[in-house]
Structures are given as structure tokens and as C-alpha cells.
Amino acid sequence: MTTMAATAPLPFEHQPPMGLRERKKLKTRIAIRRATYRLIAEQGYDATTVEQIAAAAEVSPSTVFRYFPTKEDIVLTDEYDPVMEAELRARPADEPPLASLRIILTGAVAAILENEPEEMHLRTRLMLEVPALRARMTETMADTSQLLARPIADRVGREPDDLEVRVFTAAVMAALREALIHWGEHGRRDDLVAVVNRTLDILEGGLRL
After folding, report:
1. pLDDT of res. 2
2. SS3 103
3. Does domain 78-205 sit in CATH 1.10.357.10?
4. Residue 8's pLDDT band (cuts 50, 70, 90)
5. Banded pLDDT at 71 (limits 50, 70, 90)
6. What burial letters (b/e) apply to 117-144, b meaning 16+ CB within 10 Å?
7. CA distances from 160 to 25, 106, 107, 147, 149 (A)
8. Reported pTM
9. Quick one: signal sequence residues (predicted)?
């Protein structure tokens, strides 16, 4: 996932309320991230330093690290996780969990491609080229899995750390990771929303001969 313009609303109906302070923090995060993508596009990932990012975003290096612990996090972190959690809680209670996640994940992917297609393409390319980014992506998706496990657990009357809940949410996020990697490895030519839907179809129906 990536981010949208600082002034654009997130593409979901059930957004967490955001005060002035939160909006300022979001604007700073987006400025840092956009500066990072611009520098990486110009000079490459390894050549881009946190000091350069800070200067381009007009903040201090300490501010960059306050928002993003590592350079990998600047590339990979976005604002969609809490919105997806809110959207998941707002889905009908009798809707199958995988159907709810399909709607939310494909909606997020479609919104990203519409609002920040160049960043999405660059980010996916970097995930294939930079081992540290690919490893960190696995960690961040695990964090997202834990976040989404809470509303899923509430939906099915279990605890978030129940094995069944953990396996389900982890499987969905792992499938999304593989969909992104597949899309990147094949030149990002296919419709990514269709790739994600196909991926979830496999998860739902199993591998058939």
C-alpha cells in the first residue's frame, strides 16, 4: 500500500476522526514519503540518505526518524491500516470474513492505483530489487495481519490470538504479498485488482487440478 495526497480524503467511507494535530502529522509523513520517492527515482535507493530526505522534505533528520524508524519504513508504511480496520468493522456482521476482506483490500488497491500509480509502481519495483525492503514488507504485513485480526475475531466470537484467527488473517496478508510480488515480477502489466481477486479466489477455493 501507498499513500494519497495530503489534502485528499482516504478512499473509504468509515474513516477514523482526525483532528488538526493528526492532520499536520499526516501532512508531514506524506511530505517525507514523497521526497523519498522523488529522490529514489532520481538517484536510486542505496544512494538516497535520510539526510537528503530530510532536506527535501524541509524537516530535520530527527523528525524523519520520529515518523519512520528506518528508511525501509518510509517506502513501505502508509495510512491505510487503521482505515481498513474501521471499514472491516463496518461490514455486515453476517458477511463471510474473506468476502469482507476482499472488498476492503481490492478497494484499497484500486484507490492507490488511482491516486498514486507512479509511487505504487516504484515501490513494487524496489521490493523486488532491494532485499531489505522485501524483508521489511513481510514484517509490516504481519503487523497488518495482527491489526485486522481484532475485528475478524470480534466477528466470529473468538480472541484475536486464537490460532484459527491468526492463521486466517496471516494467510490473507501472505496471499496479498505474493500477489504484489507476482505483479511486479511480470512487469506490472496486469490489472492489479484482478490479480488480487484471483489470489483470493485461490485462497478461497484451494489449488485445483
Report:
1. 39
2. helix
3. yes
4. very low
5. very high
6. eebbbbbbbbbeebeebbebbeebbeeb
7. 29, 23, 24, 9, 5
8. 0.82
9. none
Contact 53, 40 (CB under 8 A): no
Q: What's the burial of 180, exposed, middle or buried (CB within 10 Å: 0-12/13-18/19+)?
A: buried
Give the closest residue to 73 by CA, choosing from 52, 55, 50.
50
Render pLDDT for 114-133 as a digit per residue (tens, 0 to 9): 888 888 899 899 999 999 99
Taking only the tens place, the pLDDT of each residue in 80-97 is: 788 889 999 999 999 999
Give me the residue spans of the domains in the chain. Answer: 20-70, 78-205
Our CA dihedral for 156, 161, 162, 168, rounded to 10 degrees, sits at 70
Superfamily for 20-70? Homeodomain-like (1.10.10.60)
